[in-house]
Amino acid sequence: MTPTDLPSLRETLDAHGLLAKKSFGQHFLLDLNVTRKIVRLAGPFEGRAVIEVGPGPGGLTRALLESDAGRVVLVEKDPRFLPLLAELDDGSGRLVVVEADALKVCEAELVEGPAHVVSNLPYNVGTPLLIKWLTGPWTPHALTLMFQKEVAERIVAAPGDDAYGRLAVIAQAVCEARLVMHLPAAAFTPPPKVASAVVHLVPRADRPDAGTLKRLERVTAAAFGQRRKMLRSSLKTLGGAALCEAAGIEPDARAEVVDGAGFLRLAGALEVVR
């Protein structure tokens, strides 16, 4: 049976008596026209593997199985959805369902070689998962992820924007990040209280090494933890004015106006000053 031969997602949910679980941050995307558009924005996959986190009833999964993706690996924490997802398996071995917490899995053990991550992320773990993929040892081929609109805007924000902060600096140091799609709350079941957006991220060829990323996390935590203060003050425990001068950054500047290159210089200077 192909995805197009299956009952509708709403019929499938009703047949299994399933509702979204608030504690898991679940909001289902049941419109296959929307999920197909997300998959088109994520691709082409050219036979590469795709990891999907939190597939729930499988709306995005169906679109992935219709695409040129190779193996489709689903990571689902909620055991209620395993029977629904099993119904999508055509027996070819292309679909793999893993019952696990995505924050704890090792992606390198799930897929071989370059792989995409395409997910409508559960709201309560979206940001921690992104940080894991940005700073962890496993590097995806690309990420196409749905977040709350506010979080998506924080990922792609530029210096001077109200949304600019740690997440933008770290994400953009590691990846080229673009906001590629907006979705209203009404597109989901149940509708969340906020709108959503899809962000597409492609790792940079000059991605910082692990040591630089750790220092970048320290510098941005200090700088944006007191974002209204001048860097000479907010970075005082890391070297203050001396650190800024070593990085070629004006000590009287505030974090919100320093671009990603400036923060990478601060991260580099941290190793020297400390």
What sequence of helices (H) and strands (E) makes up the elements? HEHEHEHEHEHEHHEEEHHHH
Low-confidence stretches: none
The main sheet orders its strands as 4-3-2-5-6-9-7
Oligomerization state of this entry? single chain
Number of strands: 9
Q: Mind describing the biggest β-sheet?
A: 7 strands, mixed
Radius of gyration: 20 Å
How far apart the termini lie comes to 61 Å
What is the percentage of strand-forming residues? 15-25%
Mean pLDDT: 90
> Number of helix segments?
12
Description:
The chain has 274 residues and is of the alpha/beta class. The chain is built from 12 helices and 9 strands. The strands form 2 sheets. A 7-stranded mixed β-sheet has the order 4-3-2-5-6-9-7, with helices on both faces. Helix 3 links the parallel strand 2 (49-53) and strand 3 (72-76). It starts with 8 loop residues before the first helix and ends with a helix. The model has no long low-confidence stretch (mean pLDDT 90).
